């Protein structure tokens, strides 16, 4: 199974960004959250339709009022008309004018009572009023509001100055109109021809309450939007801080690792975070630690290789120099044998070094398959017996039932592990000794044990023997027959299969060593099938 992180493309379509690819993550988070607030802020524009609705209702109300007033005045004489105009003007804060059929002003409530409203001069108002009017004009521009006429009192005051009065005189019906006063407050005016045809009634009212209501609603909604936007921005910054800053630190650490500073880089693990950022941090930290161990192991391996190659090369050089100067045929033959032995030793070292350097990389690319270790060991013992690789030692294998010792792995590599352990057991066991192999399953793990009758392994050396180029050979064995890489390669392969290899004393108290391999059983896999 291929690793989950492998992608066919460096930039999968699902992860591609187009027009936002140059925008930082902080600004994206802010934009997404502020966009929702902007939609809410659009409610400010809705207030324009709210204002239009209020004005329309006021115009209709003014038409009804002037219709009632006109019919009431029809039945009154001049003194009674004056009294009614004074009363209505005081009650509704309106200015009421009566024009005759020639358009001349007959009655004006402002001459009968003190004015009920005063048109304010914007030049004499404080700056706050100017700012409010600018905001009103700004909203009108945003909603593309219809242009409204200015309300101007003309002298002389005649009916022809008011289009709604002219229209009312013409079609004998009520008309209303809205204009802006100099301070940009609505002026609601209405006109109607008196039923008996003896004049036109005209009313005007400075409806500042409409402006106050709309501005108050805009202010309240603006405060809500502002407060919501502030909270949203703070939460966005908090979210960006908890996401962007850790990602930047992780990216900085990754760049330093890429630049070859793996040893001095400490990738933050963020143990307090249980989310995806914490998972990413711990994954990167583990990756950098694994990379650091790989680098250290590579450097140590290179140093060990250099050291191990120098010895046979120095011996070979001395033998070749001696061949050039020694005349005695016996010594020359002896030096020639030494040179041949050193060449064989170099060849063995290079072969084992090549195998050791490739095993890690090959295991990461290998597809694991079910391997019956019982069957594999049985076949391996038969081959060794035919080739005489046991060197006079006996082997005994208690083969388990088929399907008991089955693991997921790469057969050739696992066979190499067993073969290395058997070679080690044969070399340490005395002539005629017995090497036993056991394979069984216990609690979801497959255990393979290789038991010899050699001197055993001292507790202080049970880790050292798995170190590369470590070689502690039996007495009497010729020097240089082993490279010291067999057990190191065996441990690398076993760990690549998610298992362990250890060495212990024999359970029965007899002298000898027990090498135990522990691998996950196929039906109890806790890890991915692929070592990657």
Q: List how many beta strands DSSP finds.
A: 12
CATH class of the largest domain: Alpha Beta
Helix-and-strand structural type = alpha+beta
Low-pLDDT residue spans = 1-12, 476-480, 526-532
- Here the CATH topology of the largest domain equals Beta-Lactamase
Q: How many discrete domains?
A: 3
| Average predicted local confidence, pLDDT | 79
CATH superfamily descriptor of the largest domain: PAS domain
Strand content: 5-15%
Return the CATH architecture of the largest domain: 2-Layer Sandwich
What is the H-and-E element order?
HHHEEHHHEEEHHHEHEEHEEHEE
Helix content: 40-55%
Question: Descriptors for this entry?
Answer:
five-stranded mixed β-sheet; 3 domains; 532 residues; Heat Shock Protein 90; Helix Hairpins; five-stranded antiparallel β-sheet; alpha+beta; single chain
How would you describe the overall organization of this protein?
Helix content is 52%, strand content 14%. The protein has 532 residues and is of the alpha+beta class. The longest helix is centred in the middle third of the chain and has 51 residues, at 208-258. Helix 2 (43-74) packs antiparallel against helix 7 and helix 8 (276-325) packs antiparallel against helix 9. The N and C termini lie close together (8 Å).
Q: Quick summary of this structure?
A:
Helices cover 52% and strands 14% of the residues.
Task: Summarize the SSE layout with pairings.
Elements lengths: L24 H17 L1 H32 L3 H15 L2 E5 L5 E4 H4 L14 H16 L20 H9 L3 E6 L5 E8 L6 E7 L1 H51 L17 H50 L3 H37 L3 E4 H15 L6 E5 L7 E4 L1 H18 L5 E9 L2 E7 L34 H11 L3 E6 L7 E8 L12
Parallel strand pairs: 7-9
Antiparallel strand pairs: 1-2, 1-5, 3-4, 4-5, 6-8, 9-10, 10-12, 11-12
Helix pairs in contact: 1-7, 2-7, 7-8, 8-9, 9-12, 10-11, 11-12
């Amino acid at each position: 199974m291929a690793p989950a992180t492998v992608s066919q493309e460096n930039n999968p379509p699902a992860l591609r960004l187009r027009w936002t690819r140059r925008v930082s993550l902080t600004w994206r988070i802010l934009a997404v959250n502020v966009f929702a607030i902007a939609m809410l802020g659009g409610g400010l524009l809705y207030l324009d339709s709210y204002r239009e609705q209020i004005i329309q209702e006021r115009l209709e109300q003014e038409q009804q009022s002037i219709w009632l007033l006109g019919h009431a005045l029809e039945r009154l004489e001049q003194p009674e008309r004056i009294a009614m105009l004074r009363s209505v003007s005081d009650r509704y804060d309106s200015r009421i004018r009566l024009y005759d059929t020639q358009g001349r002003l007959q009655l004006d409530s402002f001459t009968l009572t003190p004015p009920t409203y005063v048109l304010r001069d914007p030049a004499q108002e404080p700056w706050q009023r100017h700012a409010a009017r600018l905001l009103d004009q700004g909203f009108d521009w945003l909603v593309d509001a219809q242009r409204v006429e200015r309300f101007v009192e003309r002298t002389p005051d005649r009916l022809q100055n008011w289009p709604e009065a002219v229209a009312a005189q013409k079609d004998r019906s009520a008309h209303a109109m809205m204009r802006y006063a100099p301070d940009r407050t609505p002026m609601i005016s209405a006109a109607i021809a008196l039923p008996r045809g003896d004049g036109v009634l005209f009313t005007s009212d400075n409806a500042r309450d409409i402006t106050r209501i709309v501005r108050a609603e805009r202010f309240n909604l603006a405060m809500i939007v502002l407060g919501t936007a502030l909270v949203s921005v703070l939460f966005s910054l908090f979210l960006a801080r908890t996401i962007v800053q850790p990602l930047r630190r992780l990216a900085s650490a990754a760049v330093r690792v890429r630049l070859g500073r793996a040893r001095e880089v400490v990738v933050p693990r963020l143990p307090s975070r249980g989310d995806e950022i914490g998972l990413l941090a711990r994954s990167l930290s583990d990756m950098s630690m694994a990379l650091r161990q790989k680098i250290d192991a590579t450097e140590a391996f290179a140093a060990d290789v250099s050291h191990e190659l120098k010895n046979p090369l120095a011996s070979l050089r001395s033998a070749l120099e001696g061949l050039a100067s020694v005349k005695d045929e016996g010594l020359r033959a002896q030096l020639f044998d030494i040179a041949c032995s050193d060449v064989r030793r170099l060849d063995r070292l290079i072969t084992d070094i090549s195998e050791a350097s490739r095993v890690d990389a090959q295991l990461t690319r290998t597809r694991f398959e079910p391997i019956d270790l019982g069957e594999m060991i049985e076949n391996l013992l038969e081959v060794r017996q035919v080739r005489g690789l046991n060197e006079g030692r006996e082997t005994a294998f208690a083969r388990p039932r088929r399907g008991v010792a089955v693991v997921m792995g790469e057969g050739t590599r696992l066979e190499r592990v067993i073969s290395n352990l058997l070679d080690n057991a044969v070399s340490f066991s005395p002539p005629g000794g017995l090497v036993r192999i056991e394979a069984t399953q216990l609690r979801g793990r497959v255990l393979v044990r290789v038991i010899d009758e050699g001197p055993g392994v001292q507790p202080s050396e049970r880790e050292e023997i798995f170190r590369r180029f470590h070689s502690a050979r039996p007495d009497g064995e010729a020097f240089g027959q082993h490279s010291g890489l067999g057990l190191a390669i065996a441990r690398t392969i076993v760990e690549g299969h998610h298992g362990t290899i250890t060495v212990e004393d024999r359970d029965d108290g007899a002298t000898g060593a027990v090498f135990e391999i522990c691998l996950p059983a196929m039906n109890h896999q806790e890890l991915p099938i692929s070592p990657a």
